Amino acid sequence: MSHFDERAATWDDDPAKVARAAVVADTIRAAVALDGSERLLEYGAGTGLVTQALREAVGPVTLADTSAGMRDVMVAKIAEGAITDARVWDLDLATDPAPADERFDLVVTVLTLHHIHDVATVLERFADLLADGGHLCVVDLDAEDGSFHGVSFDVHQGFERSKLAGALTDAGFVDVEFRDCHHIVRDGVTYPMFLATARREHARPASD
What is the tally of structural domains in the chain? Predict the structure, then answer.
């Protein structure tokens, strides 16, 4: 996490990141009907830019990130009133179980999943954290040639939508849908991003 710790203090100075967060938030609002009461968890929240952009559309928010530097920025934003009714978690769902006493109506994760080796486990833990009928929103890169992070990056080079859809279904989600979301331009190359939405199915009544 040292890479993100070092960049946290100046992360929001990049207008492209702020603009991207606004587009992501708009795309989520277009895809999921929100009434302003939803308990939101943003996982891999960074400095909380997406939650800031969604703040007026949801209820209480929880921001989780494994980078101490990013969490420090979010804590400062909460103290300054830039993000209200919020708390910050140090949570790594790749290694830690989902908190048993917590439930959310909306889980959002943006450009985080491609950093995670064991995607299947994390998706299952998202399902554990969602209330019945709750929605998961995953924003990430479409499959790319490895140039986005370079040859030293050994996790995921984006995602093929059909394969991620299968992983979401395997984790217990229904109503899986994909839509184009935004893009990142890096070194003259454009990398498309998608929004995947999925719903945690209502619990079935016990059979007689």
Answer: 1
Which residues of the chain form beta strands (DSSP E)?
A: 40-43, 61-64, 86-89, 104-110, 130-141, 173-186, 189-200
d(CA 126, CA 42): 11
| Look-up of token digits 């454009």 | 190
Q: Decide if 129 is inside a domain.
A: yes
Strands 189-200 and 40-43, by their bridges, are unpaired
Residue 39 lies in a domain: yes
Q: The domain that contains 97 carries what CATH number?
A: 3.40.50.150
> Would you say 161 and 194 are in contact if contact means Cβ atoms under 8 Å apart?
yes
Phi first, then psi, for residue 48 (nearest 5°) are 85, 20
Expressed as residue numbers, the domain containing 72 is 2-200
Reading the block at residue 100, the tokens are: 């048993």
Q: Can you give the pTM of this predicted structure?
A: 0.90
| 46-89 residue pLDDT tens | 999 999 999 999 999 999 999 999 999 999 999 999 999 999 99
Other C-beta atoms lying within 10 Å of the C-beta of residue 29: 14
Half-sphere exposure of 101 (CA within 13 A, CB side): 0
DSSP letter for 12, please. G
